[in-house]
Structure formats: C-alpha cells, structure tokens
Amino acid sequence: ASSPDEEWPEAEKAEKLARGAALKWASGVFYRPEKLEGLGHYRRRETQRNSSIQSRLKSTVQSYLEGVSAGLEQLRSAAQEVQSVCQDLGAARWALLDSADHFQGLQQMRELMEEHVQLASVVQVLPQIFSVHEVFSHILQLLHGQHLLEAHVELMVVEQLRDDILSQLHRRGLSSAQATVLSYFSGLQELNESLAKQLWDIVGSSLRLVREDPILFVTAVRIIEREEKIDDTLLLEATFLPPGRPKGWRQKFFQVLQDTITGGRFHAPHMDAEGPGLAKHLAALQRDIVSELCVVKDLMVQCVPAHYNILSVCTATYHQALTSHLQEILREDLDKQGLFLLLEWALRVYHSPEMMAHPDLLPEVDVSALDPLMSSELVDQTERRYVMKVKASVFEWMQRTLEVEFKEWFREEEPETDHQGFFQSALPAIVMQMLNENIQVASLITNSLQQKIYNMALEELEAFLGRLREALVQCGKEHQQDRAVPKYYISYLLAVLNNNLTLSNSVSSLHPDTACREVPASLQAALDRMQKKATQLLLEELLLDLQPLCLQLPSRKWLSGSQLVGSMCEVIDKYAKDFSRVRKPLFTLLLAESELLVASQYLRALLQRKMVCKSREERGQLCHRLLQDATQLRELFCGLGLDRSQQSLEAVFALRELICLKDPALLSLEVLGFITKYPDVSDEHISTLLDIRGDVSKEVRHVVLEMMAQHPQVLPEGYRPIFSTILVPVPELPFCLRKGKCA
Length: 743
What we know:
single chain, 743 residues, mainly alpha, Tetracycline Repressor, domain 2, 27 helices, cytoplasmic vesicle, Exocyst complex component 3-like protein, SNARE binding
C-alpha cells in the first residue's frame, strides 16, 4: 500500500509551506528576548485554534459521508424501480403482440366510420346538389334583370359547394369522380362568363355611369373585390385550387378601363393629319381628356377603393396613349403647319392650364413624374423635319420674290423711293419679314427650334444673295447687248445697293439673343460680294461713258488746251447725281471707286499711249496740262463730298513732278520717293515715264532702274493699288530681214 504522502503530494507540499511560514513568523515574533515571556500564552492560543479547526473538519467530513450514504441508498432504490419497469414493459410488449389482430379490426371500423361521416355530409348536401340546375336558372334570371349582387351571392354558394366536393375528392384521389362533378357543374362557367361580360360592359361605360348611375358601377366594383378576396384566400391556402381560379378580375378591371380610355379616340380610323383636320383632332383630344379626368377625379374616385389609385392610373393611361398616338401621327408626311401644331400641343398646350395643369385637375393630377410626352430625340427629329419644311417654303417664297424683282428691273419706270428719295424695292422688307416671322413663330415652341430656324434663315439668305447676284449678272449681260435695256438700268443698280445695305443692317435683328448681334462671316461675305458686283456694274457703265474721252488722251489737241477733262467732269457729275439716290455710306463708296476709276483711266491713257516730249517747252506744256486736269478733277470730287485724303488723283500730281524735274540727274531720288509712296509701280511704269520726258540718257535710266532694284517695295496693309492695274505696252524690238539692214 502506498503512503499518504505519495497519494497526496499536494498535501505534503502544503504542509511544508505551512511549517516554513510558521517558522518564519515565529522567528520574527520571538526574536527579541522580551517577547519570549508571551510564548506560553501563544502556545495556548494556537492549541485552541487547532482544536477548533479539527472539530470543524470532523463535522464537515461527517456531513459529507452522510450525503454519500443517502445517495447510495437512492441509487439502490432507483435500480430496483428500473428493473420493475423493464419487467412491466416486457409484459406490455407481449400483451400488444397478442392484441395485433384486434387492432386490424379497429382500423376497418375507423374507415367505415369515415365513410359514414362522408355519406352523412353528402346526404346533407344532396338537396343542394339536386337543386343546382334550378339555382343556375335563377342566377341567369337575376343576371338578365341586372340584379348582379344577388346573382353573385348565389353563384358563390354554388361555387363553394362544387369546390368542397372537388376538394374531398382530391384528398381521396378520385380523379374520375372529379370529372363527373365538373360535368355536373359545367353551367357555372357559362354563368361566370355571363356575369363577367356584364361587369366589363359596366366598366367600359364607367365614365358615363359614374355620372348617370353610379350604383351599377359600385356594384361591379364590389363583385370584383369579392372575387379578388376569394382568389387571395385560395392562393394563401395553396392546398387545392378549384378550376377557373384565380379569376384575376381586378387586373381585368384595369385592363378594360384602359382599353376604354384608349380605344375610342386613339385607335380611330385614318384622319386628316394636316392643317385644320389635325388642329380639330388635337383640340378634341384636349377637351375630352380634361373633361374625363375631371369625372374620374370628382366622381369615380369615390366609387372605388383608395388602393386602386384610379386617378393616377387613368392619368398615366391617357399619357401613354397620347405618347403612342403622337408617334403614330408623326409617321405620316405632315406639312409644316401640322408639325408646328404637334410640337406646340405636346410641348406647351399639354402642360398648360388649358389641359393637364387645368385648375379643376390640380393638385391631384401631376404628369411631371411621368416620362415626357415626346422624348428629346423625337422632339429634335420633329424640329428638324419642321425646319426642312420651313426651308422649302422659304426657298419657294424667296424664289418668287427674286423673279418679281428681276422683272421689275426691266420696267419702263424708275424704282420706288423712300421718304428720303433713295431708290429701293420691296425685296428687303419681304425677305426680312418672312424670315423674322418664322423665327418668332419658332420661339413659341422651344429655344432650340428657334435657333434651328435662325440658322436655316441665315443659310437661305446667303443662298438667296447668291442667286440675286447671278440674276444681277444676267441683267448686266443683257444690258451689254443693248444699253437701252433695261431703260433704268443704273437706277435699279442703285436700288439693289440700297436693298443690300438694308439687308445688311437688318440681319442682326434676326438673332434670338438681343445681346448677340454679330453677323456670320459667310453671310457678311455674301453681302459684300453682292455690293461689289452692283458697284462693279455701275463702274462699268461709267467706264463705257468715259472711254471715248480717254481714247483722246494724250494728244496734241489735248495738250494745246481742249475741253476733254471738262467733258469727263460732266459725265462724272451726271453719275454723281445718280449716286445721290443711294444712302451716304454707299454714296461715299461709289464716289471713291469712281475717283479711283477716273485716276487709273487717266494714268492708263497717259502711260499706254506714249507721248514723248521733244523739248523742254513741250514738257512744260505737258506738266501744265497735267496740273490743270488733276486740279479740275480733284476739285470736282471734293465738291461732290470726297475728301482729298481719299482720292487717288494725287498720283497724277506726283507723276507730274517726275516729268517737270529739270535736272535728270536727280531723277533717282525723285523716283525713290515716288515708289515709296506708290509701291505698286513697276520698272515698266517708270521706264515709260522716263520715255515721256524725252531727255533721259541711258546712263540715268540705268541708275534709276538699278536704284529701284536695290529698294524693292512691299504693299502696306490697306493700300489701294492704282498702277498694278495699268499694263504698259512692251517696247518694240528692231525687226531685221535676212541680208538686209535693220529698220
């Protein structure tokens, strides 16, 4: 046997620790000699404490042993009871085995009892089953008399009877019996169909009935809600679903109501989709929709359950039907009036107080949460179609205006004048009014449409100016063939210039944004080309009258003091009087161009028909004539209102200084100043001038031309060329025959 210390090593360890702690304490307490006197007292106290601890330990151990003894006694008693129960269970098992045959008899009795209960229930419903066909007839009579609630009650009773029988047969798995029952109750389907037909007829006439006979409509809604509750109950049970269930009459109610709303007016036969026909159709839609939504809001809402949201449903139905209907109309080839009506109706009228924002509909009716009646893509596509139609119309009107204008040019009377006496025609007013009206009309729809029409208007105006310019060229060609046709050719050219200025000043007013009045560069270029062509034709007329006089320059007769320049001044003055019939900026332009033409023709005649001075006296005579002519012409143009700074006749004065120079050796410096002032002068021009002097040696000529080569000139910006348009004749070379002398 093992020792207690080996069995309880913890106890040994605890004892050692306790002894060590006691020794440590004792050594500390009795270290001093005076403390040894209390040793006896301490020994007695510790002896009492040990006795107390031992007594408590004994008591605890005794209590524990008593509990263990009681537990063992209970375990012995439980073991005896379990053994007794096992014996009883064994006996019961043998007893059950002996009674198995008796239980089979009880099962048969239970089945007989169930059959008896079923037969009893069948016996109870036999009177109802036998009276089914009689009930069918009565229900049919009630339906014919529109006693719908009573008919529906009896119909539900018969359906419940049928469903109970079918449910029992379903649980027993008697499918063949189910077919027999369904055949027996086959009249139920016909009655349901008859009742449903009357209900849908009522729903189809709901907008009229809620005003005339709301009771009938409310009856239909009550029946539909009864059937909906039966459907919900059967679907929740999910054990047996009778034939014809779920009926879904509430869903059918909304479908019939939506078909009623959309069928009558949105699926109508083909209508006149243009002009007045479309306007009447849209007006009828507007009137009917507002009226019917008011009926729904004020009357129908009170006849149906709140969860139907009948007003929202009807509003959405009208909205969707209109969306599809407008798309259907847009598939047709509408004219510009039809497209405008459709855009105006969909984008403005539909949301206005005249329709969906009508005071009688607010605030319950709100279409802002629905999709747009026309999508942004469809609006853009329709706007482009409208712009194309308007463009074709504008082109046609402008072409007619151009044809009328062209015919007026050949009239036997002068063009019209304004209150200031300036020539004009109705063309600018017609064109601008036409374009402005289309832009303003487009502003009633959307800003994007207005911008599209504005861009189209500028494009058409630019194209029109091109065609007008071509017509002007054609008129000029006919006038070249016979200067008597048109009779008032110059007057109408002046009217064209005034019209062009009016158009140029009016174009900026077309812009939708008053803060942005800039004319596009391409259109401004077309206006400038038109003005340039009319000015060119006028100058050609002036040139035709001046050429016979210029052909006499220079000549000995002219040099001796003829009235040639005086005749030129008379021609110029005559044209200046005609030019006074145009507005001031154009008058100044024509004067400046005429003066440039006169100066260039005068210089051309002087340079192309070389007149060589044979003596100093002739040079002096030539200089005197040049001075008189240039002064006379300059004073004429100054008197007409053209400032000297704008005149090109100064070139004649400068050229005269070259000819009047007495010392040819100074010509290089004089020519340098001349070419600096007139950089478009060429070597040929200077060489011709030196020839006219008649006293320039080859050496001086060489020095002058060398100086020009060393000082090439660049045309400054804004410089008006005068010499570059004058071609001087090529010097004639000596012509020699073979074996002969040169001429």
